[in-house]
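Private note to self, pasted from the team thread so I don't lose it. Backbone tokens:
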């Protein structure tokens, strides 16, 4: 896997280090090859967290996700480093500034050169698996994505609407469906405004018997805690037969 070694200082007790390795084509198009994330308070261990000391220099190693990739001739390799990668990673409690010592930092890219034995490599066999059940698509699925930026508050909202449609399992006549709605929002200069809402619904039924389960989770955060609100419903033949709502407060503990 690509390995990034950085010499950095940080002005806050914790921060997110996000690195992206990209392929930049001749006309400027960019393909993300792989990326890596590290909470800097986890730099030595995921069990014994240590806050960063302001002004102190640290040697940080960040292994990116493993990948096999060939950069075409004429393309450039781009490395991007930031202190946020929202909404993939929640922002740190405070905005942090990292100072990078470029001359003491390195990117290690493992390279596999062509070998004479490559011509003798055998193709993989067809993977084994259980025969797929015959199905009929009753409603095709689709995915919609929206990004909204409030010009006054600089609140950024990303909405993803995923509908997997509905499918009939032909041998048993059961119809199943699934839908998911995700909303991520945060103000540009205020990590404490981060909010994630996920609504999900599963449906299944056959004839007069129809069931569904649906859940909604909302995650917000302050400088010291995460707050979770969870709602769950079970529905049979259009009637709610079970529901539960609860909330949780989770200390951030340098997250």
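Design output:
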């Amino acid at each position: 896997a690509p390995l990034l070694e950085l010499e950095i200082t940080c002005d806050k007790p914790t921060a997110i280090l996000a690195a992206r390795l990209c392929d930049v084509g001749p006309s400027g198009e960019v393909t993300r090859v792989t990326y890596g994330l590290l909470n800097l308070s986890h730099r030595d261990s995921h069990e014994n967290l240590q806050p960063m000391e302001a002004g102190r220099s640290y040697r940080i190693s960040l292994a990116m996700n493993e990948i096999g990739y060939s950069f075409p001739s004429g393309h450039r390799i781009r490395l991007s480093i930031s202190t946020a990668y929202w909404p993939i990673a929640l922002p740190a409690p405070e905005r942090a500034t990292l100072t990078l010592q470029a001359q003491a930092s390195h990117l290690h890219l493992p390279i596999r050169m062509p070998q004479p034995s490559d011509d003798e490599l055998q193709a993989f066999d067809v993977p084994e698996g259980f025969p797929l059940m015959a199905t009929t698509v009753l409603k095709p699925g689709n995915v919609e994505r929206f990004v909204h930026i409030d010009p006054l508050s600089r609140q950024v909202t990303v909405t993803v609407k995923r509908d997997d449609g509905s499918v009939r399992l032909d041998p048993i006549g059961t119809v199943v469906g699934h839908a998911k709605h995700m909303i991520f929002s945060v103000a540009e200069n205020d990590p404490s405004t981060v909010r994630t809402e996920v609504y999900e619904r599963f449906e299944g039924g056959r004839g007069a018997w129809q069931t569904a389960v649906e859940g909604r989770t909302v995650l917000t955060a302050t400088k010291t805690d995460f707050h979770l609100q969870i709602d769950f419903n079970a529905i049979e033949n259009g009637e709610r037969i079970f529901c539960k709502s609860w909330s949780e407060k989770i200390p951030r503990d340098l997250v």
